[in-house]
Prior knowledge:
- The complex is a heterodimer.
- By secondary structure, chain A is an alpha/beta fold.
- Chain A has 11 helices and 12 strands.
- Chain A folds into 2 domains: 24-118 and 185-308, P-loop containing nucleotide triphosphate hydrolases (Rossmann fold, 3-Layer(aba) Sandwich); 120-179, no CATH class.
- Chain B is mainly alpha-helical.
- Chain B has helices at residues 4-13, 18-37, 44-60, 66-88, 93-112, 117-120, 131-135, 153-178, 180-190, 192-197, 202-225, 237-250, 257-281, 290-311; strands at residues 143-146, 149-152.
- The radius of gyration of chain B is 20 Å and the shape is globular.
Amino acid sequence: xxxxxxxxxxxxxxxxxxxxxxxxxxxxxxxxxxxxxxxxxxxxxxxxxxxxxxxxxxxxxxxxxxxxxxxxxxxxxxxxxxxxxxxxxxxxxxxxxxxxxxxxxxxxxxxxxxxxxxxxxxxxxxxxxxxxxxxxxxxxxxxxxxxxxxxxxxxxxxxxxxxxxxxxxxxxxxxxxxxxxxxxxxxxxxxxxxxxxxxxxxxxxxxxxxxxxxxxxxxxxxxxxxxxxxxxxxxxxxxxxxxxxxxxxxxxxxxxxxxxxxxxxxxxxxxxxxxxxxxxxxxxxxxxxxxxxxxxxxxxxxxxxxxxx
Amino acid sequence: xxxxxxxxxxxxxxxxxxxxxxxxxxxxxxxxxxxxxxxxxxxxxxxxxxxxxxxxxxxxxxxxxxxxxxxxxxxxxxxxxxxxxxxxxxxxxxxxxxxxxxxxxxxxxxxxxxxxxxxxxxxxxxxxxxxxxxxxxxxxxxxxxxxxxxxxxxxxxxxxxxxxxxxxxxxxxxxxxxxxxxxxxxxxxxxxxxxxxxxxxxxxxxxxxxxxxxxxxxxxxxxxxxxxxxxxxxxxxxxxxxxxxxxxxxxxxxxxxxxxxxxxxxxxxxxxxxxxxxxxxxxxxxxxxxxxxxxxxxxxxxxxxxxxxxxxxxxxxxxxxxxxxxx
Lengths: 309, 327
């Protein structure tokens, strides 16, 4: 596994993550999450039905798939925000099946949300401080006596300001989070998640609703996470972003994992094209979803360009 | 002619009256619930009833000393908070609202029913529980004070004790809300899933908040009965809504707001009711009987609550900035 930025500025991808041929449920050299037989049904609808899935450690893994593929549901299951009908999964070798969300987070697996959850009427700095784990001042008995936690609070504040500076939010630290723009809230949510010093960061659509000017900086922040040794798993619709930063891609459709592999192979996988376009995409059934077609064509072109060089 | 001096003097008495203190403390409990944690507790009257009955029953039926009776009222409200919280705090905020409003009514009806008459006194309520508290009074017998505030030693003792308790509760709340614990609590108000994702046991924090606010309500119930008797009809749902009015008047997410709100509420209520009653007597409002005049003040309270929510939703002491953004 290798990381850090390449000579031309493009991120260097981690390779050699899997064992054997890339296929749905392929074994990883060093998995951080191993999930088995996870099934979640809403009434008659099976939202998630994953036989086996391993997320590689120290890499950036993208979870993609068309709308309704069960990506966010799988996210919720893995983080303890939802309970599956059946299935087991482990994080870092420990079973976390059925463990409540707050305990999962304490183990070092922290998530963000598709709809950003900035705590509006807390200041940006308070949002950050809330992220720190194991604060003794958060116990009711000790909260009344500041001398128990004052020193710890100062350390947390220093760390928060450090992170805010990195995310260029330090000038806003005393403003209410509600006054931030949508993109700044995404940055704040990510920075807040980092306050807990996680080993696995799970980002649910980090780019949704982000102004293009901020996209690059968000991408860089995600790449930085990998550089610092964290594992990243993210859900995303933006194919360019997936191809740009992901080391490994897991494709879901109708609740199942239909393909896995490095971004370039996956984009060419017939199962993926079927998932996005339907298996009759080469027959004329009327107007296809032009947006997705264009995106996939562009990616195919990009790949062709790159292979020439 | 209207005796304005008497009107103002009556209104001024409300500033330090034990009833004002009791409402202030109950509103402070509600501030912890609603203003800081976002818990919609519509059963504060139930917590107050538990404090009042807990104290009175422990004194009269069990013959316990004052400290034991106070402790009994507190424990009763903690148990009540647990019963309400265990099933509802995992659910959305609205469920707690429904359960608390119903539970407070159930309590009131249980205290009213004839079945428990020997213990609860049924609709007549309880009295004769003040002996122990009187014995603790350090103030020598006599009449003290100046201007409109002239009281005997017991009345002063009730006021000092009541407002002392309010001050202590306000100090505790202020300390808590400035601490990391308070930060988690306010985070839960904003979005509990976000707080859960950061590794905090949201359920546990909500339970702690429900208990703290409930204990404040129960202590408020004890202050409330020191100058009067325990009567079940005092603990109707309208009591909870008066306390909400006070909370919104002062500022929901503030520590001093509920206290100031209670003072303003009672001074205005006393002034208006006195004014209307005398205006009817003086023949200024010929279309109104004196019985109707007695009800008019509650209409005025309703109008006042509406005006506050429309024109100053943050309350007297609330932060204007908090309202610049719609959640």
